[in-house]
Specification:
The model is unreliable at about 1-55 (pLDDT under 50). The radius of gyration is 39 Å and the shape is elongated. Strand 3 (about 110) and strand 4 form a beta hairpin. It has one domain: Outer membrane efflux proteins (OEP). It has helices spanning about 1-25, 50-55, 65-75, 75-95, 140-205, 210-245, 260-265, 275-285, 285-305, 345-390, 395-410, 415-450; strands at about 60-65, 100-105, 110, 115, 125-135, 255, 310-320, 330-335. Helices cover about 65% and strands about 10% of the residues. The chain is an alpha+beta fold. Helix 1 (about 1-25) packs across helix 11 (about 395-410), helix 8 (about 275-285) packs antiparallel against helix 10 (about 345-390) and helix 11 packs antiparallel against helix 12. The chain has a four-stranded antiparallel sheet with strand order 2-5-7-8, with no helix packed on it. It has a two-stranded parallel ribbon with strand order 1-6. Keywords: Signal.
């Protein structure tokens, strides 16, 4: 088979040279007639339009920068988390507010001596009390610090959510792009076979070729159509994710646009593994949220200790006729004596939460470090394989066109023709899968670091 392949490549190159040299020597000479009984070769289409594209209501070309802009501005999950941040920030204001004063009024309903009801004159009884709760030991400031740390946790949760959703967006974008490129390969091949089969069907009906050739061609076309259908099914989740993340309700067929030279130029470059690990320790939103949570628990411990000091209740009382003198005025003070309840349980809980938060932070740092190291190594392996396997597919397109002509002229058999076609198809499909895997690996490393360090847009 390898010998036949090299002979065929040589034949294609000879045909290309033969098409130029006779034209210089014999201008206007008629072309040689094709072999009797064989269908004439037909030109290959250059850029077939995918059937899914043609059937779509609308096709929208989308760059990654446009997708990220729509994502940041319209994603509903980000919007909901922004409201969580706003709600947490409102709790800072709430923690700083003073308690409202309590005003109470007591009025005699019926005065049996005067026979009056609701007597508010000098002969009736009226009592007015005003009380204000005053917190001491810096409790209001401590509560505000707890709320402020909680708001900071929500801000970092928003940052981490943005990191996670951006990773989903970018991987869905690149996966969809390379699957659409593979879909175009299938569309080109299916179009070619749909053009070839009717011609060979006519030759079979004329008795020039065997029926088994037509049957094999139709069977191969059926396989290509099934593979294309499965690929279109695999594209659906990527297309759905892209629409949901960008809040696209148009139902249009999204067509990602990628600058291939920039994707090929991606490299780990000057970044060492330790540099990316150090960056991740600083940039990762989940680590920052864990750190802020630990700070929140430290503030909560100080707040719980401040609760040991009792609140001071200051009040004023006016009694018109119910005391030992008329128009009684008095100052009232109240305080809870911390004899039994000194908030021991809440203090111990806060101390335990601090220790647990430290352990969780250490675990999170270890996980982030391993994520960066693992993805860094994965990118190195896939990128090395990509640099060895990636190549311009133009020569293969020309060779497969020559194979079609060779089969039409009966220079190769049906088995060799289908074998070459299958090899051509597998090469392009696997090459696109390798490219998609490489971009996915780079995006995984970006997500592990906490920001898009490696960008191809």
């Amino acid at each position: 088979m390898l010998r036949s392949f090299f002979l065929l490549v040589g034949w294609v190159l000879c045909c290309e040279l033969g098409a130029v040299l006779p034209a210089l020597a014999q201008v206007g000479a008629p072309a040689p007639a094709p072999r009797v009984g064989a269908p004439a070769p037909m030109p290959r289409p250059v850029a077939p339009v995918p059937a899914a594209q043609a059937a779509a209501v609308d096709t929208v070309q989308l760059t990654l920068a446009q997708a990220e802009q729509r994502f940041v501005q319209g994603n509903l999950q980000l919007l909901a988390q922004r409201f969580n941040v706003t709600a947490a920030q409102a709790q800072i204001l709430q923690a700083r507010l003073w308690d409202n004063p309590v005003v109470s009024l007591e009025q005699n309903i019926h005065n049996p001596e005067t026979g009056r009801t609701f007597d508010v004159t000098r002969t009736g009884e009226s009592i007015v009390q005003v009380q204000q709760l005053i917190v001491i030991a810096g409790r209001r400031r401590a509560a505000a610090n707890v709320a402020q740390a909680a708001a900071l946790v929500e801000q970092y949760n928003l940052q981490d959510l943005l990191r996670t959703l951006r990773y989903q967006l970018r991987t869905a974008f690149y996966d969809l792009y390379y699957k659409q490129r593979t879909l175009a390969v299938y569309d080109t091949e299916i179009t070619s076979f749909q053009r070839i089969i009717p011609a060979y069907q006519q030759q079979y009906e004329k008795g020039n070729i065997a029926q088994k050739e037509v049957v094999r061609l139709k069977a191969f076309l059926f396989v290509l159509q099934n593979q294309r259908q499965q690929l279109f099914v695999d594209m659906a989740p990527n297309l759905s994710d892209l629409r949901v993340l960008t809040r696209d309700t148009s139902g249009a067929y999204l067509q990602p646009q990628v600058v291939l030279p920039r994707t090929r130029d991606l490299s780990l470059g000057p970044y060492s593994m330790q540099q990316l690990v150090d960056s991740a320790q600083i940039l990762r939103g989940d680590l920052l949220a864990r750190t802020a949570y630990l700070q929140q628990q430290g503030n909560n411990l100080r707040y719980q200790r401040a609760l040991v000091a009792p609140d001071l209740l200051v009040g004023y009382t006016y009694d018109r006729a119910g005391s030992y003198i008329q128009n009684y005025n008095a100052l009232t003070l109240g305080v809870a004596v911390p004899v039994f309840n000194r908030n021991q349980g809440n203090i111990r809980t806060a101390e335990a939460l601090i220790q647990g938060g430290k352990a969780q932070l250490g675990q999170a740092r270890l996980v982030v470090q391993n994520e960066v190291q693992q993805n860094y190594q994965l990118v190195g392996l896939i990128d090395a394989q990509f640099k060895q396997a990636d190549r311009d597919t133009t020569p293969f397109d020309r060779i497969i066109g020559g194979i079609e002509q060779a089969y039409a002229r009966r220079l190769i058999g049906l088995v060799e023709f289908l074998d070459y076609y299958q090899s051509y198809n597998d090469n392009l499909v696997q090459l696109n899968q390798l490219r998609a895997s490489r971009m996915r690996a780079f995006e995984q490393l970006n997500a592990a670091v906490g920001r898009p360090v490696f960008r191809a847009e």
